[in-house]
Write a structure and sequence with these properties.
Elements (H helix, E strand, L loop, with lengths): L1 H20 L3 E6 L7 H16 L3 E6 L2 H10 L6 E2 L2 E2 L3 H25 L4 E5 L6 E7 H7 L11 E11 L2 H8 L3 E5 L1 E3 L5 E4 L1 H11 L4 E6 L14 E3 H10 L6 H13 L4 E6 L5 H7 L6 E4 L1
Parallel strand pairs: 1-2, 1-11, 2-8, 5-8, 7-10, 11-13, 12-14
Antiparallel strand pairs: 3-4, 6-7, 9-10, 13-14
Length: 297
């Protein structure tokens, strides 16, 4: 009986959040081990489907770097990186489109549909969703709050930056009760395809949709301070200060930049959470304490 009462208490705790967020959009950047371990994949899908069934509008943006590396190796192609960016020539771009827009995207869609959702997979090329431009070393350094390593006008091949997002296709899908699943590939005005950092796509999509929240799934608990302590809540200014001091660095920087993009675009809160934790999304959205780091304006 005590176990049943505890379950009822959990539902009661979630009720005010369900009431507040019904009809609101939540953009989820799906990445890390939550994308590669079967048990975590299944729990992720259950969380997203539950969000939909209680009235929220989830939108998923996914990555897939390790899977791209595996396919490149299988095809005898070398993975090249510069300043942490995958240098993307035409053969590599073909693999990116095949893996992100094909294999991974459709696996996520199938998993959500199997759990009772209506999910639709697309890339930024569909419906003119994401207009892209070449990513320069200067633009990448700005996104990491660092100085460019090399000539500032140096680019990375067919690696893109988000120029604009037209959310009309996403709004239409939401009206028809579908969950959009987006692969981070954009196109320029000439029709060239670009590989775009998934964190930055998620931030731009959240801003374009005026989402209630941006959730960024990663493989750490959240942001830590200079003494290594987990920080549950950060203001925008405090986070910028930590970046300048170097407290926030390396792979966390694109995620932080995505959160800032979202907040600048009108998103109310951004969250960096540990996607390895079972039901991480539900714990962050529907509980009083949450589990990761929330960033507020």
């Amino acid at each position: 009986m005590n176990k049943l009462i505890k379950k009822a208490d959990v539902l009661v705790e979630a009720l005010p959040y369900i009431r507040t967020f019904t009809g609101k959009t939540v953009v989820i950047k799906y990445g890390g081990k939550a994308m590669t371990e079967d048990a975590l994949k299944d729990r992720f899908a259950l969380d997203v489907v539950l969000l939909k069934y209680v009235g929220l509008n989830p939108v998923i943006v996914h990555g897939g770097g390790p899977q791209i590396d595996q396919m490149l190796k299988r095809l005898g192609l070398e993975a090249k990186f510069r300043q942490g960016v995958r240098v993307t020539d035409r053969p590599t771009m073909d693999v990116v489109e095949m893996v992100l827009g094909g294999k991974i995207n459709k696996e996520i869609v199938a998993l959500l549909n199997r759990h009772g959702a209506k999910a639709v997979g697309l890339t930024g090329k569909d419906g003119g969703l994401i207009q892209a431009k070449p990513l320069t070393a200067k633009a990448w350094a700005e996104s990491l709050c660092t100085d460019p390593d090399g000539p500032p006008d140096e680019d990375f091949g067919l690696v893109g930056a988000v120029q604009s997002v037209d959310p009309q296709i996403l709004l239409k899908l939401q009206q028809d009760n579908f969950i959009p699943v987006i692969a981070p590939i954009g196109t320029d005005r000439e029709g060239r395809s670009y590989n775009i950092n998934a964190d930055l796509v998620a931030g731009a999509v959240a801003a374009a949709l005026q989402a209630e929240k941006l959730l960024v799934l990663t493989d750490v608990k959240g942001i830590r301070d200079a003494k290594g302590r987990h920080v549950s809540t950060l203001s925008r200014k405090d986070m910028q200060r930590m970046v300048k001091k170097g407290t926030i660095s390396a792979g966390m920087l694109p995620k932080v930049h995505a959160c800032l993009m979202a907040l600048d675009g009108g998103v109310k809160k951004a969250h960096i959470i540990d996607g390895r934790m079972p039901h991480a999304i539900l714990l962050e959205v529907f509980t009083d304490k949450g589990i990761g780091t929330e960033i507020v304006s």
